[in-house]
Amino acid sequence: MSYNLLKGKRGIIFGALDENSIAWKTAERVHEEGGTFVLTNAPIAMRMGSIKDLAAKTNSEIIPADATKVEDLENLVEKAVEILGGKIDFVLHSIGMSVNVRKGNHYTDMNYDFTTKGWDVSAVSFHKTMQVLYKKDAMNEWGSIVALSYMAAQRVFPDYNDMADNKAYLESIARSFGYFFGKDKKVRVNTISQSPTPTTAGQGVKGFDGFIAFAEKMSPLGNATAQECADYTITLFSDLTRKVTLQNLYHDGGFSNTGVSQEVMEAFTEDK
Q1: Phi and psi angles of residue 205, each rounded to the nearest 5 degrees, phi first
Q2: Which of 4-13, 153-162, 177-186 has the lowest mean pLDDT?
Q3: 30: domain range?
Q4: Are 202 and 190 in contact (CB under 8 A)?
């Protein structure tokens, strides 16, 4: 169902890899709600995914960019404004990567070159993106910037590894840069702490199926899907949430405020 919430709005969507990704679902929903956008991802990620299919489906152009390189981001923003015909109203940062996770390195035995690379891709790229948008004055007033996070930024999930640190840093950047973007440009910045979601990236984490099953049993409403996250993101891009900023917003079926659920209790309680 469409409400034309984003009619006339322009944006940039990072990280659409395939139809399982939240960025992909969000792009589809933005298109349905009347918004226009450019798609972007790192050249290597674009070779792995099917972003061209999404571009054709949503009448969008693709601008390759390595989000860790400021010059690539400057080119992205300049071309996006040119292609879309004006300043940007919304941005989705949906990228993250841990080389340590990919290589199977335990958190207590990390390769720090890998750590730095993952930190740059997953978190510092968010600062770089906003800095380019800020310096170029490329955002419209009351625009909205959203990054995707996960609750491991606050709580221990042993196999989430250094991605937990990256997400904590990402959320801090959203608050810190969000203050200046709000004060100076009337732009809001938030993160969404999403349920564990079976995306291509998420499934690379050891024990991810266990994460999902546990969260499903813990959450009174069950896990939020990628499609539901896309719906929620649309509300943050819309004018209905103009005064929501500097927030880490939990979109997890209630998991974050549940100490223990009846289902989990029953799993650990022996019949007397």
Answers
A1: -85, 130
A2: 153-162
A3: 10-267
A4: no
Supply the CATH number for residue 261's domain.
3.40.50.720
- Per DSSP, the residues of 18-59 read STTSHHHHHHHHHHHTT-EEEEE--HHHHHHS-HHHHHHHHT
Q: Give me the sheet containing 188-194, strands edge to edge.
A: 61-62, 36-40, 10-14, 88-93, 139-149, 188-194, 248-251
CA distances (Å), origin 58, targets 34, 40, 52, 237: 10, 14, 10, 17
| Residue 108 falls inside a structural domain | yes
| Mean predicted lDDT score pLDDT of the chain | 94
| pLDDT greater than 60 at residue 36 | yes
Query: Rounded to 5 degrees, what are φ and ψ at 153?
Result: -65, -25
The number of folded domains in the chain is 1
Q: Flag whether the pTM goes above 0.70.
A: yes
Residue 159: closest CA among 207, 216, 196: 207
